[in-house]
Every structure is written in structure tokens, then in C-alpha cells.
Design a protein that fits this description.
Shape: globular
Distance between the termini: 32 Å
Bound molecules: NADP nicotinamide-adenine-dinucleotide phosphate
Order of helices and strands: EHEEHEHHEHEEHEEEHEEHEHH
CATH superfamily: NAD(P)-binding Rossmann-like Domain
Number of helices: 10
Number of strands: 13
Strand order of the largest sheet: 3-2-1-4-5-6-11
CATH class: Alpha Beta
Structural class: alpha/beta
CATH topology: Rossmann fold
């Protein structure tokens, strides 16, 4: 049986991967994350704490588990926090990746790294895997440095860039969709920009893509993103409509009205043709993804 090591299992994507992998028989899976404990305290899941910043811990876990594939869904993902906590962001997003590279090289494992649309400057949108990155903020710079470390390492790798992930999870960092829902349900006004355009990605679509890449042994860079472009304002409005919430609470603003610490790329829509043709992926449209989110929130409330 092939062995699969997942890093960042407490995060939004990591949790979804754990749920999809739980109970299957193709891989022996070891979930890991920064925290002492796993959000899913159940015998279905094997979990070990692993801080990627600790070289010797990464090395000894990888050499004892001997994974065939490592999926790195861990990292510092709060864009504004990364801007002001540069050393910490670098440690998680670059040094941690370097530790995984060294460990993967020793056991001959393949590394699947999750990266971001924020490696691009957002001047043109419709980015392909061949387009030249030019990150505007520190988070994007760390993620690109992580990509570059992998690309020059000589190990077998795939890099998956994704965009504005949304979905539900247990104690996950609040993603845009959950933030919109929480506020609108409480009757709170929110301000959403109509000039930052992206392709919001439903987390299960990304998780399917990651596992497809693992299964097919694909290498190189892949863009995996939602099939529809939208501004944050449009995304919030679609959420309000699907959940029958009051859309008049959503105020339409421009990026210049916000004082975000990190500069945002304005248009990071992605061309996902490679993932569609090589992996057979068909990502959800906004309305489909929001409907799936509604369903999963409904199910988790019942359980
Ligand atoms: N969210 C987005 O909109 C978005 C967009 C584009 C790309 N991405 C990329 O997609 C990937 C997954 O994102 P996500 O939203 O699922 O992230 P997330 O929910 O923020 O989860 C990241 C996880 O990384 C773990 N982590 C942080 N530092 C660590 C360290 N030093 N060692 C080990 N684990 C560490 C944390 O673990 P604990 O909880 O255990 O502390 C956290 O659960 C990331 O690479 C991100 O850059 C995300």
C-alpha cells in the first residue's frame, strides 16, 4: 500500500483531504499539523503533530513513515498577518518547505505543494501555468520562494496554485464565504470590494484535484480554481441570494476604501485548462459551490 503524508491537516484543505482519504484502502495516510491534536479525534485518522519549521522533526518523521507522496497543505495563510510577521511567514512558507524537500529527497518521496494566485501581480488576470509570477505582497513572495525552492531541488514535485478557497471545516480560519454568512445571519452590514476579481474555489474541488494528481503521478505546475470569475462583492451577493439573506447589508466598495495592510493583486483569475484536460477536473461554478457549502453546513448542523 502506498504511503501518503499530509501536512496542514487541521486547515480547511487539510481537513477535507483527511475526510476524503478516511476509510479508503489505496493509501496508508498519516495526517500532521502544527497543533498538538487533530480536529478529528477519531480512530479512523492517524495523526502526529509536526511543526514544519523543525528540521529534525520533519526529517525523523519522514524517515520513519517513508511516504511515497507528501502533500503540503500547511502554511501561514493570513495575507495581512504575513505582511507584518515576515520572519514567521518565511519560516512557515519557505523554511518549512525546504525541510520537506530535504526529507523527501532522502526517502525518494514526491512532494505536492499547494500555492496561490497571489504569486501573480493581478495586472492581466487569466493566468496560465506558464505566466511569469510577480508577487505584490509578502505572503505571495513567500509562496513563490517555496515554489522556487521546490523547482530547483531536483525532487519529483507538483505545485498546485489555487484561489480564494471556501468551504466549511471544524475550527477553521474564517474564509470569505463563512465571514459573509456569519455577518449577514446576524444582520450585520459588511463592505465588499467590487474591483478585486478572482475565481473562488470550493474546497472539495481542490481536494479532488490534489488527490487526482497524487493518483496519476502528475508532475509540474497546475492551476486549480473555480470555473467562474467574480469580485468579492459579486461573491457575497450570490451567497446572500442562495442563503436567502438580506443582500442590502452588503455595501459595494473599492479597494482604495479599505486599508488592507498587504497590497492585493486586482485580477487573479486563472486558466485551468491543463487541470481540466489532464486530470479530468470540472470545477464548480459559484452557484454550484455555494449550494454545496449550504448542503455541508446543513449536514454539520444536524450531526
Ligand atoms: N485560503 C485561501 O483562500 C487560499 C488561496 C490560495 C492558496 N491557498 C493555499 O492553500 C493551502 C491551504 O490553505 P488553507 O486555507 O487550507 O489553510 P489554513 O486553513 O490556514 O490551514 C493551514 C494549516 O497550516 C498549519 N500550519 C501552519 N504553520 C505550520 C507549521 N509551521 N507546521 C505545520 N503546520 C502548520 C496550521 O495548522 P494548525 O491549525 O494545526 O496550527 C493550519 O491548520 C495553503 O498553502 C495556502 O497558501 C489558500
Amino acid at each position: 500500500m502506498r504511503r501518503l503524508l499530509v501536512c496542514g491537516s487541521n486547515g480547511l484543505l487539510g481537513q477535507r483531504l483527511a475526510l476524503m482519504l478516511g476509510g479508503q484502502t489505496e493509501y496508508e495516510v498519516l495526517n500532521t499539523s502544527h497543533h498538538r491534536s487533530f480536529v478529528f479525534d477519531h480512530q479512523l485518522f492517524d495523526y502526529t503533530q509536526l511543526d514544519l519549521r523543525r528540521a529534525s522533526d520533519v526529517k525523523s518523521l519522514v524517515s520513519s513513515f517513508q511516504p511515497d507522496v507528501i502533500i503540503n497543505a500547511a502554511g501561514a495563510t493570513n495575507v495581512d498577518w504575513c505582511e507584518t510577521h515576515r520572519e514567521d511567514a518565511w519560516a512557515a512558507n519557505v523554511v518549512g518547505v525546504e525541510h520537506l524537500i530535504d526529507a523527501a529527497r532522502k526517502v525518494g518521496a514526491r512532494l505536492i505543494q499547494i500555492s496561490t494566485d497571489y504569486v501573480f501581480d493581478g495586472k492581466t488576470g487569466n493566468y496560465t501555468e506558464e505566466d511569469r509570477p510577480n508577487p505584490l505582497n509578502y505572503y505571495g513572495k513567500t509562496k513563490l520562494a517555496g515554489e522556487n525552492a521546490i523547482r530547483i531541488s531536483g525532487i519529483t514535485y507538483s505545485i498546485i496554485r489555487t484561489v480564494v478557497l471556501y468551504g466549511s471545516g471544524y475550527r477553521v480560519k474564517k474564509n470569505f464565504a463563512l465571514w459573509v454568512l456569519e455577518n449577514l445571519k446576524q444582520g450585520e452590514r459588511i463592505r465588499c470590494v467590487d474591483d478585486q476579481i478572482s475565481s473562488p474555489t470550493y474546497v472539495s474541488d481542490l481536494a479532488h484535484g490534489v488527490l487526482k494528481i497524487a493518483e496519476l503521478g502528475k508532475t509540474g505546475i497546475y492551476h486549480i480554481a473555480g470555473s467562474e470569475a467574480a469580485s468579492r462583492y459579486e461573491f457575497a451577493s450570490r451567497i446572500a441570494a442562495a442563503f436567502e439573506l438580506d443582500s442590502s447589508l452588503i455595501e459595494r466598495i473599492r479597494t482604495s476604501d479599505l486599508s488592507q495592510r498587504a497590497v492585493r493583486p486586482m485580477n487573479t483569475t486563472m486558466i485551468t485548462l491543463k487541470a481540466e484536460t489532464e486530470l479530468g477536473l470540472k470545477a464548480s461554478s459559484l452557484d454550484q459551490g455555494i449550494a454545496l457549502l449550504k448542503q455541508e453546513l446543513h449536514t454539520s448542523r444536524k450531526n
